Automatic annotation (TrEMBL):
CDD domains: AAK_NAGK-C. The keyword Membrane does not apply. Residues 29-276 form the Aspartate/glutamate/uridylate kinase domain. NCBIfam families: argB (TIGR00761). Catalyzes the ATP-dependent phosphorylation of N-acetyl-L-glutamate. Pfam families: AA_kinase. It is an enzyme of class 2 (transferase). Keywords: Amino-acid biosynthesis, Arginine biosynthesis, ATP-binding, Cytoplasm, Kinase, Nucleotide-binding, Transferase. Belongs to the acetylglutamate kinase family. ArgB subfamily. Its EC number is 2.7.2.8. This is Acetylglutamate kinase. Residues 302-317 have a biased composition (Polar residues).
Length: 317
């Protein structure tokens, strides 16, 4: 059926009006948006992402962008002939690979996003976990099949000082953060080394330290699947307790991603959301529509959840 022009205009107006209660709810609040390297698949998508971030800013929300860049690091390592592998969803990082991780994340992926956002105005400031003492990390391994595995120069965040990010946000800027962090030793002193921190982990730590209202993670799947890779098993909403039970069944990149979401929820972030970054403007659809998209993760257990699909009551389903 052909939609009459009048109806089309009404649909546009309806979409704008639907956004109003969500703008009221989130205005003045901080929101951490993690943009995964696998979701940055083409220039149009990256441009749409930058538009969404500027839109959020002008809707009165304070977006803080944390970006990944796993595939971009892979291609630079390939070009340089440096081998690298992932264990438990984390890159085994030699000191040679660490130079590349730092160069690609801070010097390439971060710079490009800053440029795209700033094509709309003087908003974005590139930042890394090394700047102004933002992050501190200590070396971490991972457990694979019950065995402790050494990952080299991979870090878990031990401290966040968000004051410089708060200053930037308060002065109307949009921070764009890359996830490398100075290492602290067992004595709590800086060792002089820099560690590779998974970007989901860094985003969750920042969301917690900044008291963010929401952590949105853009990736290259529609959300979390109960029986990956069965595409009929997409989960629209899950509580932290249910996710905790599911953790041992997860694979590859979903392991650090879901561990990060749990960390944020346990630290008081009211909701985290996994969204398909391959869909243009997915952030706007997630934040400003009542249906929401992707997988919503909330604290507590199924019993502690009230049905919550309005801005006043809580979360989009
Ligand atoms: N249960 C699951 N649901 C969805 N994706 C899963 C699941 N288990 C593993 N994955 C994998 O996790 C990937 C997302 O993680 P990752 O590759 O690290 O993305 P990003 O670069 O966005 O951080 C998906 O592309 C998919 O291959
Ligand atoms: C320790 C570890 O695995 N670090 C990641 C950092 C980048 C990242 O997390 O990028 P995505 O969000 O695109 O996956 C890496 O080296 O690939």
């Amino acid at each position: 059926m052909e939609i009459s022009p009048e109806t089309q205009e009404q649909k546009k107006a309806q979409a704008l009006i639907e956004a109003l209660p969500w703008i009221q709810r989130f205005s003045g609040k901080r929101m951490v948006i993690k943009y995964g390297g696998n979701a940055m698949i083409n220039e149009d998508l990256r441009r749409a992402f930058a538009e969404d971030i500027v839109f959020l800013h002008h809707a009165g929300i304070h977006p803080i962008v944390v970006h990944g860049g796993g595939p971009q690091i892979n291609s630079m390592l390939d070009r340089l002939g440096i081998e690298s592998e992932f264990k438990g969803g984390l890159r085994v990082t030699t000191s040679e690979a660490m130079d590349v991780v730092r160069m690609v994340l801070t010097g390439q992926v971060g710079r490009e996003l800053v440029g795209l956002i700033n094509s709309h105005g003087r908003y974005a400031v590139g930042f890394s976990g090394e700047d102004a003492g933002l992050l501190r990390a200590k070396k971490t391994g991972t457990i694979v099949d019950g065995e402790e595995v050494d990952l080299g120069l991979v870090g878990e965040v031990t401290a966040v000082d968000p004051s410089a990010i708060v200053d930037l946000v308060d002065s109307g800027r949009i921070p764009v953060i890359s996830s490398v962090a100075p290492e602290v030793g067992d004595d709590g002193q800086l060792t002089g080394d820099v560690l590779n921190v998974n970007a989901d982990t860094a985003a969750a730590e920042l969301a917690a330290a900044l008291g963010a209202e929401k952590l949105v993670i853009l990736t290259d799947v529609e959300g979390l699947y109960a029986k990956w890779p069965d595409k009929n098993s997409l989960i629209s909403m899950l509580t932290a307790d249910e996710l905790r039970d599911m953790m041992p069944t997860l694979e590859s990149g979903m392991i650090p991603k879901m561990a990060a979401c749990l960390k944020a929820l346990d630290a008081g972030v009211p909701q985290t959301h996994i969204v398909d970054g391959r869909q243009p403007h997915s952030i706007l659809l997630e934040i400003f529509t009542s249906e929401g998209i992707g997988t919503l993760l909330v604290p507590g257990s199924p019993e502690s959840q009230a049905p919550a699909t309005t801005p006043e009551s809580g979360a989009q389903a």
